[in-house]
Amino acid sequence: MELICPAGTPAAFHEAVDAGADAVYCGFRDETNARNFPGLNFSREELKEAIAYAKTKGCETFVALNTFMRAGAEEIWYRGAADAIACGADALILADFGLMAHVAEKYPDQRLHVSVQASASNPDAINFLVDTFNAKRVVLPRTLTIADIARIGKSIRCEMEVFVFGGLCVMAEGRCSLSSYATGKSPNMNGVCSPASHVHYRKHGRDLVSELGEFTINRFPEGEAAGYPTLCKGRFDIADAKGYAFEDPVSLDVMGELEALKAAGVSALKIEGRQRGKAYVAEVVKVMKAAVNSPPERRGALLARLHSMSEGQKTTSGAYEKRWR
Amino acid sequence: MQLIPPLLTRPLNAVPLVVIERICRLMFRRIGTAHPGLFERLGEHRTKRFAFLPTDVPLSFVVEPASETISVSRKTSDVTADAVTEAPLFMLLALMEGRCDADALFFSRDLSVTGDMEAMLAMRNALDASNIDLSKDLARLAGPFAPMAGRVIGEIRNRALRGEAASWN
Ligand code: SF4
């Protein structure tokens, strides 16, 4: 199975390639990509150089243009697609049907992948994208069980890629409005969930308090591992209970289910983390590559090395194994 | 986590601030020369003031990318900055070189950030993208002794990072 690895900067891109990525995914430094964080991402020139480097090592590059086009500003996304293709991208990862239609029509030979942001989560939706836009691969949302994936795999006409490690988006992606509700900005339209511009950390005694806009997301007592200030992983007072409403601060790790994913027909394993540093990318790609090539009984020990780098210093297999709370 | 023992930091109180600052400015300029595009990724945040407070050293450092300056003060005085990062010194240096992941250090509570998060995120990403290598960049300051200085700095860094890796795993 292919290992698809994240890169937010050219330095992280090189680390991913050198650590054995089969493909690296990345995006431009603008609102066309769902990781539009300050100081992150690639200029046209940087992307061109990165792709050229990857090609010398036999590694592919997927360019994510996976936000939804703003009405009247479609040109930004069209230019992004044209430039990514000119730079030599092996595949474009797209979420917006209009952009898919544009790419399918103007660049019929360009390989097109359906982003997780498109939230295509049943055979009818996926086959529609295959038949209409010639999509070659779908990145499945992290809301499906492995049994769901196996059922989908039997009736679709393209490859399946699934997230196996890294940050956990627990809602139907591309449809989550929690960040919009709190800040007016979302990953879907602006490329940022819980944007840094609305995040505040303050110390309260020995506690660390995280706030997003006008909402307190969490209060971590001294010594407790911290998490990102996302609403889906906030700790709230709900009626008589205090606790996590949707999910704990935790990262995804479904590598323990590799054989089941293979049997379900998954052809590519995706690592989340374009916003993480190059040290993280280097370590995670190295360990994941070793894990993919190891017998199942050795994987646990290898992956344990990554727990402390994960959100909340914990990992979960998420919806792949469990039903919604 | 590798902390600098107080025995080693206490003498810093006796060294005049102006001397410490001059050395820091020299090092800062050296890094700037070696990485001319260092702050390009900061964009609109280039005009902000970034404070770095090592938790194990009695000094604070404030970087102003717009004027490419660094100022040093004693911890006893307040720092005025748009964004503040606090962590042990070796971690701050490792972050500067991109040898540690800032999010992982935040999760483990070894690093804390306050103030303008956008600005600090941009700074973090700019540093991570820059390929700074202190053992190479600073060794040149030692003139003919550069190779030896590079080896010494590299060895100190590797020892500190080994301590860091041990705490990660
Ligand atoms: S709030 Fe949570 S589920 Fe929603 S987009 Fe952000 S990370 Fe994903």
Written description of the protein model:
The complex is a heterodimer of chains A (about 325) and B (about 170). Chain A is of the alpha/beta class and about 325 residues long. Chain A is about 30% helix and about 20% strand. Chain A has helices at about 10-20, 45-55, 75-85, 95-105, 125-135, 145-155, 180-185, 260-265, 280-290, 295-305, and strands at about 1-5, 25, 60-65, 90-95, 110-115, 135-140, 160-165, 200-205, 205-210, 215-220, 235-240, 240-245, 250-255, 270, 315. In chain A, helix 1 runs parallel beside helix 2 (about 45-55), helix 2 (about 45-55) runs parallel beside helix 3 (about 75-85) and helix 9 packs antiparallel against helix 10 (about 295-305). Chain A is globular and about 60 Å long. Chain B is an alpha+beta fold. Chain B has one domain: SCP2 sterol-binding domain (Nonspecific Lipid-transfer Protein, Chain A, 2-Layer Sandwich). Chain B has seven helices and five strands; from the N terminus they run H-H-E-E-E-E-H-H-E-H-H-H. Chain B has helices at about 5-10, 15-35, 90-95, 100-105, 115-130, 135-140, 145-169; strands at about 50-55, 60-65, 70-75, 85, 110-115. A five-stranded mixed beta sheet of chain B has the order 3-2-1-4-5. The longest helix of chain B has 23 residues, at about 145-170. The relative contact order of chain B is 0.17. At the A-B interface, helix 1, strand 8 and helix 9 of A face helix 4, strand 5 and helix 5 of B. The complex binds iron/sulfur cluster. The site of iron/sulfur cluster has 11 residues of chain A, from helix 7. Chain A: It comes from Neorhizobium huautlense. Chain A: One of its GO terms (biological process) is proteolysis. Chain A: Keywords: 4Fe-4S, Hydrolase, Iron, Iron-sulfur, Metal-binding, Protease, Ubiquinone biosynthesis. Chain A: InterPro entries: Peptidase_U32 (IPR001539), RNA/ubiquinone_mod_enzymes (IPR051454), UbiU (IPR043692).
